Amino acid sequence: MSTEALDPKTLDRYECGACGYVYEPTKGDSTSNTPAGTAFEALAESWRCPVCGARKPRFSNIGPVGNPSGFKENLKYGLGVNSLTPGQKNVLIFGALALGFLFFISLYGLR
Ligand SMILES: [Zn+2]
After folding, report:
1. How far is the CA of 90 from the centre of ligand 1 (A)?
2. Which residues contact 5 (CB under 8 A, 6 or more apart)?
3. How many CB atoms lie within 10 A of CB 19?
4. Do 18 and 50 form a contact (C-beta atoms < 8 A)?
5. pTM over cut 0.70
6. pLDDT tens, position by position, for the chain (111 residues)?
7. Fewest CB atoms less than 10 Å from the CB: which of 28, 63, 91, 108?
8. How many A from CA of 30 to the centre of ligand 1?
9. What's the pLDDT score for residue 81?
10. In angstroms, what is the span from residue 76 Cα to ligand 1's centroid?
């Protein structure tokens, strides 16, 4: 992937999992002479967190500026059924089975 002609505002920010430092692509990193507008992906593999020295794999994508944690919130809402408690799931499953059974019995009774 080329880093040329990228709108700096769309560049994703990355947060250090060790110390919480956030790499801002729109600002770059003066500690390593990284110019503003450099995507995190474009940083050298030898690049380290300027605060704690953690390597790139310790960083996680937290999205572009102006879109804080939107990704995580979408995930939460998107889970839907998976956020039900096991008890609620049992009620759903048992209810569906009971309905199916009643339906089957009624068909049987019509014959
Ligand atoms: Zn760090």
Report:
1. 44
2. none
3. 13
4. no
5. no
6. 444 555 555 789 999 999 999 999 999 999 999 999 999 999 999 999 999 999 999 999 999 876 555 455 455 555 555 677 888 888 889 999 999 999 988 888 776
7. 108
8. 15
9. 56
10. 27
Looking at the domain 8-109, which fold is it?
Rubrerythrin, domain 2 (2.20.28)
Phi, psi torsion values for 82, nearest 5 degrees? -65, -15
Q: Which residues contact 26 (CB under 8 A, 6 or more apart)?
A: 8, 9, 11, 36, 37, 65
Looking at residue 32, its amino acid is S
- Retrieve residue 34's tokens: 């990284």
> How far away, in angstroms, is 48 Cα from ligand 1 center?
8
How remote is the CA of residue 23 from the centroid of ligand 1, in Å?
Answer: 9
Q: For residue 108, what is the enclosing H or E element?
A: helix 86-110
37 CA → ligand 1 middle, Å:
20
Which ranges of the chain would DSSP assign to H, the alpha helix? 70-79, 86-110
In three-state secondary structure terms, 53 is: coil
